[in-house]
Write a structure and sequence with these properties.
By secondary structure, the protein is an alpha/beta fold. The chain has one domain: 3-Layer(aba) Sandwich (UDP-N-acetylmuramoyl-L-alanine:D-glutamate ligase), CATH 3.40.1190.20. About 25% of the residues lie in helices and about 20% in strands. Strands 4-1-9-10-11-12-13-17-16 form a 9-stranded mixed sheet, sandwiched between helices. Strands 3-2-7-8 form a 4-stranded mixed sheet. A two-stranded parallel ribbon has the order 5-6. The longest helix is centred in the C-terminal third of the chain and has 16 residues, at about 340-355. InterPro entries: PfkB_Carbo_kinase, PfkB_dom, Ribokinase-like. This is Carbohydrate kinase. Belongs to the carbohydrate kinase PfkB family.
Length: about 425
């Protein structure tokens, strides 16, 4: 097998280990989970009134794989789809993004999942989604019929809590993949709590069990509150001590990453409000900035660093796919061994790309353009206001993405009116 080159152009980051005793990686990221054919309305309105739809694709894990592939990372998507035309379309569309789909199983007995949605914001009562995924091909995934080599030959294995809700077989598969064992790749787990998928909310606590088996966890503070009864980034981190890295998405405020680092035994660091790496302050829900302790002792030699980066303002087109794009951006920067602040900024930037297009998938900014935006100083970062089409600006080397200080607060960086200012995850 060929060993993947380090896409960051530098040494491999220490938190994406080459498996010890396992097979050599042949792709950057392997993503496992269900993807569905999505039907998007051509006009606003209720599902009962919409006469026509455009076809697209959607699925948390395949979204991550496609987004990463579009920026040059090697990715593989593993799943099951039906032998129907929808399955054909999914495979063709995902492969067209540059993703390896050679290990997707075809199921002649079960259909490919589909869903319909309206154009309303997912967080409001005007948003409708109709899923047709019960008994889908993907819900029959088990460890027994998947190729172990295909699963474990990525530098990162990315999973989602959505898969755990599909069936008992899928839950068993995720339990096996998050079990800690020598030689496994870095396991990334996006909690992706969807109340509609869990008939008994108490059962969703299994997501905490799965997250504890992961090395890198993405979770919204609202998800942790609703599924686990946890409040605030620090409480979430304390509930996930096993994870090397925990990313807490805090809605309109921004996101915090906790990462465990190793320091020489006996070294004492003064507790400070700013992280040594980013200079960012912790911010609790509600927008209050606190000079909170940025490091805390995990063992005699382990320290937990906490880095906060505020969210961006964007001109909202559709509030779907942003969480997947955020995860993809963070993973891209992780593969490159970039600092924590840059990883969060990459997440925000890629999420902003998803929020400014109508479907679940968006092409993120080019690497040079994203690097330039991620390197802005804090005041310039907080002035950014990204409008639909903003990723096209990277074709112009002199394009300035910053909103003018005296610009209309409801306009985007090109001066057009923005529909809404929203967080980038």
């Amino acid at each position: 097998m060929t060993r993947p080159s380090n896409t960051g152009g530098g040494p491999a980051p220490d938190d994406v280990p080459v498996p010890d005793g396992g097979p050599a990686p042949d792709v950057d990221v392997v993503c496992l989970g269900e993807s569905m054919v999505t039907f998007l309305p051509r006009l606003p309105g209720r599902l009962a009134d919409i006469p026509s739809f455009d076809r697209a694709i959607g699925g948390a894990e395949s979204n991550v794989a496609c987004t990463l592939a579009r920026t040059g990372h090697s990715t593989r998507w593993i799943s099951r789809v039906g032998t129907d035309g929808f399955g054909d379309h999914l495979l063709a569309a995902i492969a067209d993004c540059g993703v390896d789909v050679g290990h997707v199983r075809r199921d002649p007995l079960r259909p490919t999942g589909v869903y319909f949605r309206t154009a309303g914001d997912r967080a409001t009562d005007t948003h409708e989604v109709a899923y047709y995924r019960t008994g889908s091909a993907a819900s029959a995934m088990t460890a027994a019929d998947l190729d172990p080599a295909a699963l474990h030959t990525g530098r990162i294995l990315h999973l989602s809590g959505i898969t755990a809700a599909l069936s008992a077989d899928c839950l068993g598969l995720l339990r096996e993949l998050t079990a800690r064992r020598p030689g496994r790749p870095l396991v990334s787990f996006d909690v992706n709590y969807r109340p509609g998928l869990w008939r008994d909310p108490a059962q969703a606590r299994v997501l905490l069990e799965l997250a504890r088996g992961a090395d890198l966890v993405f979770v919204g503070d609202d998800e942790a509150r609703d599924a686990w009864g946890l409040h605030g980034p620090r409480a979430i981190r304390e509930a996930l001590p096993e994870a090397h890295t925990v990313v807490v998405k805090q809605g309109r405020d921004g996101a915090t990453v906790f990462r465990r680092t190793r320091e020489p035994r006996g070294l004492t660091r003064e507790p400070v409000g700013r992280t040594r790496e980013s200079g960012g302050l912790m911010r609790e829900p509600g927008g209050r900035r606190d000079a909170a302790t940025a490091t805390g002792s995990a063992t005699d030699t382990d320290t937990d660093t906490a880095t906060f980066v505020p969210a961006l303002r964007v001109g909202l087109v559709a509030a779907t796919g942003a969480g997947d794009a955020f995860a993809a951006g963070f993973l891209s920067a992780t593969l490159r061994g970039l600092p924590d602040r840059t990883r969060l900024r990459y997440g925000h930037l890629w999420a902003a790309a998803a929020l400014t297009v109508p479907g679940d998938l968006a092409t993120p900014p080019s690497r040079p353009y994203a690097d330039r935006l991620a390197a802005l100083d804090d005041p310039a970062w907080e002035r950014l206001h990204l409008a639909p089409g903003w990723t096209d600006a990277d074709a112009d080397a002199d394009a300035d993405p910053e909103a003018e200080p005296d610009a209309d607060p409801d306009s985007d960086t090109s001066g057009r009116r923005a529909d809404e200012e929203v967080p980038t995850q």
